[in-house]
Input
Amino acid sequence: MRSGADKLRKDLKYLTLLAREYPSIASACSEIINLQAILKLPKGTEHFMSDLHGEAEAFTHIMNNASGVIKEKVDRVLGEEASEAERAEFATLIYYPGRKLDELKARQTDLPAWYRQTLFRLIDVCRVVSSKHTRSFVRKRLPKNYAYILDELLHAHFEDHDKEFYYNEILNSILAVGRADDFIEALCELIKTLAVFKLHILGDIYDRGPRPDLIMEQLMAHHSVDIQWGNHDVVWMGAAAGSPVCIATVLRTTLAYNNLEAVEDGYGINTRPLALFAENTYRDCDIHHFYPKVDESRGPYHRGELARVARMHKAIAVIMFKLECAVIDRNPDFELEGRDFLRRIDFAAGTVEVEGKRYPLQDDDLPTVDPADPARLTPAEEEVLASLRRSFTDSERLQRHVRFLYAKGGVYHIENGNLMFHGAIPLTESGSFQVETFEQHGYAGRALMDYCDERARRAYFSPEGSEAWQTGCDFLWYLWCGRLSPLYGRAKMTTFERLFVADKATHAEPSNPYYRFVNDTRMDRAILAEFGLDQARSHIVNGHVPVRAVEGETPVKGSGRMIRIDGGFCRAYHERTGIAGYTLVYNSRGLSLRAHQPFETVEKAIRENLDIVSSVDVFETTKTRVLVGDTDNGRKLAADVEDLKRLVAAYQTGLVKERPEG
Output
């Protein structure tokens, strides 16, 4: 049997590197004590959100209230000393301090007394939300200007002196120097930061809503976030990489929802070349079927402006369909033969072939399509596309956001027993994992998800124009709409049919069999086993398909192992779902679903102290409180403790020499 010294010698190189950070027995032992204390803390709150679709205001509100977590803390701290209306008003102050303060101050007859009461309450709420974190974690997130004061207020002990007297002395100083408003805002922001330890975004940040860029800015500012890409995200990633078909797809969707604000104001994309081309080429064309979907609450809309958008929509749609033909040609393993629709038009008869059957075209006014070579771009279209491509690749803000998506994102993520992905694990009709063949290799289940993740990264990190770049760009488009894409989860995307074919039977987008097996516990268990997870305790969390609560559908599927949390933030879905979807909260006590009512405006939320949460369903509780030591991060910390113990042993045996500190 090998001696302990022999084992230490085997790891000597690693222990020597570890000694650089902990140069003495004392420093290593101090960190062991610190880590062991962390392992005994309650696990931090995890917040799951999905399908944000550019609804920045609704997203901001959900982030501000942490899906009701902050209101729960307010109710706990204020209790019966404040009415429900007062507690709602106080919660609104925490959500929007910069915009609520003036209104509240204007109503006070004794402003100093109100300041003291408000600050007392905020400090108490802050102490509650900070209780799950180490002092070091909290210190790192304290606002710089008030770090010392807040650290003292949050961690003071009152065994030997009166709490109210101690607080008053500090607060009197704050009031005396006129910094009360700043201090209140700092406290509110700290409460929101500490309320959620980890944020999980399950895809579809982009499209439909007006400002996905503002959502991305907030995500980048968050202290701990991961993202599972949705199909609407990957097509933007492809556009940022310079993929012409992804650029055309992004713009077509943007114009279909009259959402140029996201492209032009959000990312500084110059769409004027497209607008001029559309005005010159499609001015006298039929654009009836290309008018955008509009949200009347965001109007009013001028008919002439909508007509301009419709012409742009038609122009980029035709360019997109041409580019799709080339992608289909380059990638026979995508198995999208038959969906190169421009080549399947009989221009003389005014019909198009869809899945072997001919249908009349409801719009055959296509001035840039040459019947002899339908997929060929005209010189003017090529010029427009080149200009748009420069705008996308040169947009510093878009590139920064997409780099963040790659750094923090992936096709799936596993943490604390939860398997998270956006769409589906492709299945066969019999419920087995669907094998897909790409680049002469077959992939299914987890191997398919891993392959999709790897190939999606080629587009952005390979030299532009290289074969790897081209295959990566094409694959991002496939993930957007491919028949077996795990991010899309449907057999086909019927954009062409909806624009050009009146027969609604062609508009259907059949879902992958995965969605028919969601209530089959055998499927849940098979997927969890495929990803190496405990079949009795773990969960599958995904989004993509809105839960139709208005029809009685529940987000908890099967035996409770699968949870679908399509947030339904997009206003276009509200009529179909009946609510604005769900978010999920996982804290040390268990899992709870939060159902949300449609969000109107920030102004109304502030004025009327309205919260977006409508109900809380605690559907799974733990027998004992979950501690940090029970989490994935806790297991890593426990391994660090063992490494530090070995370092201490190496110091004690003289294998590693202590270095003077300081």
